[in-house]
Design goal:
Number of helices: 15
Largest sheet: none
Number of domains: 3
Shape: globular
Order of helices and strands: HHHHHHHHHHHHHHH
Radius of gyration: 22 Å
Distance between the termini: 25 Å
Structural class: mainly alpha
């Protein structure tokens, strides 16, 4: 639970940093910053994410003691990946190709990708061993240093390169603060290559799918810059970045705990227990993400007026509204459907889902009517995620997983609809009092219906939580 809270706090910090950097850089420079950071995310994903996923799936406190060569194989993969990515980025930066970014920004994007890859790997090690202390320390160090270096650099210089350099410094400081606590004993080199191949067989299909999905917003940003300029790219990017941070961060914060529970169920009780846990995980994710999507749309006028920098208002709400269905689909696909393939160790269907999404985005770009702004690209991006989700669900059916109960799905739909009907009249009265009223009323309506119909066994869960408190009070 502490790890999940720390992850959510980190996501909130990243959300705030994104808004502050956008404010200090302005739309045009933030457009360059956004393309560079999106490139860094793809570099991180392609070069290192398969190792992170393997650490979460195959490394644990027991493995650390009984099979120390697993950690050594993971470390060797990280080192090789960092060397390969660094060389590739340097070659690209000085290739002389006509690219949307300058050589300096390309180099900084590569360095950020490597730094974030190392950071995500170290947090995965702490997560796999359920080490709350080191996990919190590495996140806290990155957040504090990020506020100083990333936001401070953007404020002081209004330069995307300096802001990116601040990101690298913050990650480096966080890694140094927890290096010893996350280190393992050395082990013999035997078997590392076979382990690396097994890690790749497990993780690469997931990562290939993830990279393809990430190429969609990156390609769309590049197209926006070519058609409408960097000002519009900044507007488009901020809506996408804030939206994905809201949905992916909340879903990933739950997944930090939920997926490890499924892994533990598979390890200790077998595949049937793991499938039951996955079904429960899907119920929880859908029960949170569905009302979140409705809530974001309902509170968007107040959110924009209170939080979004002045230079981005108007286009921000327009683009984010168009992107919301796709953001919900992406969250469900990545954190509800993909774990089915991960536990079954059959991850290749995610590549097919990603290819289908890319084809859908490309078809809409080619054939959809173009407008005076990038709204049509936001719609294309949203539709592509919906197509990807549909294809992923179709492949998941072949594995015969255990699905959430239809009753729980219906309750989520009922509660979300009731919340939307109650809050809709307040949507046009933007302001802090309205936002507070919407939030409290929405939570009360949704939570009340969920409790009334006992969504996912909520009453029993609350009773189990309340029992220790009642016992402690009685003893006191």
């Amino acid at each position: 639970m502490i790890v999940g809270i720390a992850f959510a706090a980190n996501a909130l910090f990243n959300f705030l940093v994104g808004l502050l950097v956008a404010r200090f850089l302005g739309p045009a420079e933030f457009g360059r910053f956004a393309i560079a950071t999106a490139s860094a995310v793809i570099i991180n994903t392609a070069g290192f994410d398969w190792i992170r996923l393997s650490a979460v799936r195959f490394y644990s406190a027991r493995t650390r003691i009984e099979r120390p060569h697993v950690r050594m194989a993971l470390d060797a993969c990280i080192g090789a990946g960092a060397a390969a990515v660094s060389l590739a980025v340097a070659i690209l930066a000085f290739s002389g190709l006509d690219l949307p970014l300058t050589p300096g920004l390309i180099l900084m994007a590569g360095i950020c990708g490597v730094a974030n890859g190392l950071y995500d790997y170290r947090t995965a090690l702490a997560r796999a061993r359920f080490l709350d202390g080191p996990y919190i320390r590495i996140i806290l160090a990155k957040n504090v240093l990020g506020l100083i270096f990333i936001v401070g650099g953007a404020w002081w210089t209004q330069s995307a390169i300096i802001a990116l350099a601040g990101l690298v410094l913050s990650v480096g400081g966080a890694l140094g603060a927890t290096w010893r606590s996350l280190s393992d004993q050395r082990a013999a080199a035997s078997g590392r290559m076979s382990l690396a191949r097994s890690f790749a067989a497990y993780g690469v299909p997931l990562i290939a799918g993830s990279v393809l999905f990430q190429l969609i917003p990156l390609g769309n940003r590049a197209l926006v810059s070519a058609l409408y300029g960097f000002d519009e790219t900044g507007q488009f990017s901020l809506a996408n970045d804030i939206g994905i941070r809201i949905f992916a961060a909340i879903a990933a914060a739950m997944d930090v705990l939920l997926f490890q529970l499924a892994v533990r169920a598979d390890e200790t009780h077998g595949v049937h227990a793991a499938r039951a846990q996955l079904a429960n995980n899907m119920t929880i994710q859908f029960a949170v993400l569905a009302p979140l999507a409705a809530g974001v749309w309902l509170t968007l006028p107040s959110f924009e007026a209170l939080i979004v920098p002045q230079a981005f208002r108007g286009p921000f709400a327009l683009y984010l509204t168009a992107m919301l269905p796709g953001l919900l689909a992406y969250g469900l696909m990545s954190y509800s459907i993909a774990p089915i393939f991960q536990i079954a160790k059959r991850t290749r269907p995610m590549i097919v889902a990603a290819i289908a999404a890319c084809l859908a985005d490309g078809a809409l770009i080619l054939f959809a009517p173009h407008g005076a702004d990038a709204l049509w690209l936001a719609v294309a991006q949203s539709v592509s995620s919906l197509v990807g989700l549909a294809v992923a669900v179709a492949f998941a059916l072949a594995i015969s997983p255990q699905w959430p109960r239809l009753r729980d799905v219906a309750i989520v739909g009922l509660a979300t609809g009731a919340m939307a009907l109650a809050l809709a009249p307040l949507r046009n009265a933007a302001g802090l009092p309205t936002l507070v009223e919407q939030t409290l009323l929405g939570v009360a309506i949704y939570g009340g219906i969920a409790l009334l119909f006992d969504l996912g066994g909520l009453r029993a869960l609350l009773s189990r939580r309340a029992m220790p408190i009642m016992i402690d009070n009685h003893r006191g």
